[in-house]
Amino acid sequence: MGIALNLQEVRKVYPNGTEALRGIDLVIQEGEAIGLIGPNAAGKTTLAKLVIGLLEPTSGRIELWGSRFGQLPRSMREKIGFLPEGGSPFESLTVEENIIFWEKLYGISKIRGEEALKEWGLWEFRKKRAKTLSQGMKRRLMIAQVTLHQPSLLVMDEPTSSLDPVVRRNTVDLLRGFANSERTLLITSHDLFDVERICTRIVILRHGLILAQGSMEELQRKLGATQQVRVETSVPIPEALRESLEERFGIESTSPNEFFLPQGHNRGELIRFLVESGVDINLVEEKKETLEDIYIKMVKEDEER
Amino acid sequence: MRRVWAVFWKELRSFYGFGWMAWLGVLVALAFGPLQSLRMGATGFLVTSLWGIFGGVYLLETISFYYERTQGSSLMLLSSPLTVGEIFLGKYLAIFLVAYLTQLVALAISACVIWSTFAVLPPPSLLPMLFITIPIYGFVFMELYSLAYALLGNVSYLWLVMVLIFPFLLSPPSQIMPIINWIISFPALPIVLGILLALLLFFVVSRISKERMVMVLS
């Protein structure tokens, strides 16, 4: 597999002086699924727009499949799909006409268009004008449009925003399927749960710079993230026993009948001790740090620096 | 051409989705020329042709840009493999076709009005101007409009053009006819000039960056 996308020292300064990106170096291999996360105004949308040629970098170099965007042959440009944040389908057209437009644009068969309408639950709305659809349905239509030509590189800005839970699940499943194929995916999102489920690599942006990047495991390792065990008892633990648990296992209590066992302590030994002490255990579960925990930690650390 | 055709098709289909206000505007453009014909005689054909093309182009292009800007659909279009030139060409062809048809209908109505009132039809020497020269300059006006939109972010200065044209449209035939006679005495010259101007403007329009269009339309 080759390099799909290569960004070197990319800076973007808008005409009003806002420096959205301040030197981004990022290499994305074909087949990777990248999740761009970061607070508002971190530069995520700017980066997405630069990648698909909607914006031009102030300095630095962006290469897609080894060529600068301007030098990319038309056949390669047709392998890119982009879902903008907050955009809209063509509202004066019907749902069906919106799809037909993309069929005509990419020279796709009508059958594929009909499949997409059915796949995205739009078939029964096909004769309705797009302006009469709800926000979620419009978003669904846009996703159907940008995935219609089965792009090799799909860039999506907040793909799951304003979708109802069922469609959101469908979208995540579709993107996971996409991520498992040989195609490349770049998504920006505030929904860290979705990013965690879809992406193989996560890039955290802040103030126009990459704060950290890597797989979930790599980010967890970088942060020295802990893997705790949560224990819940059916009745509150007596004070004397709690003190003994703190001393022996270093537990962190969160309520009278719940505590966490930090990483590095023997879980089996703890359970034996509790049973021998006559404590009725309700639940023992592993609690891994989520992407949200990691993200919040990283942003806080960066703020403190 | 496949991509230009796709945009042309999309634009034409979009016109059906315009609200009644938009079509009321086009009807006004249609009616203005024939109404003027009632007091102008043969000169009314010119007024009808000018008003049909320029009014049609102005209204349709304004509505088209307005919809793209307010709906945010332009981002989808600009992020596709289409070039700015292809997007504009598709748009121009669709708008021009409808404006030209508007002009033809308006001219037919004018012909009926003028024939029944003054018992005259347009002289043959005027036909190239009505059906070729004026439409070409309507096309040029359409390009100027989009260029102003893309470069300035608004089209306010085009009102000045309209203000300049308006007195001409309302002037008495005795003032207009010498100018018209001078133009139609060299029919090829304004046509060739208009085509060259249209090509030059299209060259300039197609050089506008997508970034500029994103800034203006979103």
TrEMBL record, chain B:
UniProt keyword annotations, A-Z: Membrane, Transmembrane, Transmembrane helix
Transmembrane segments: 12-33, 45-67, 88-118, 124-142, 149-170, 182-205
Record has Lyase as a keyword: no
Name of protein: ABC transporter permease
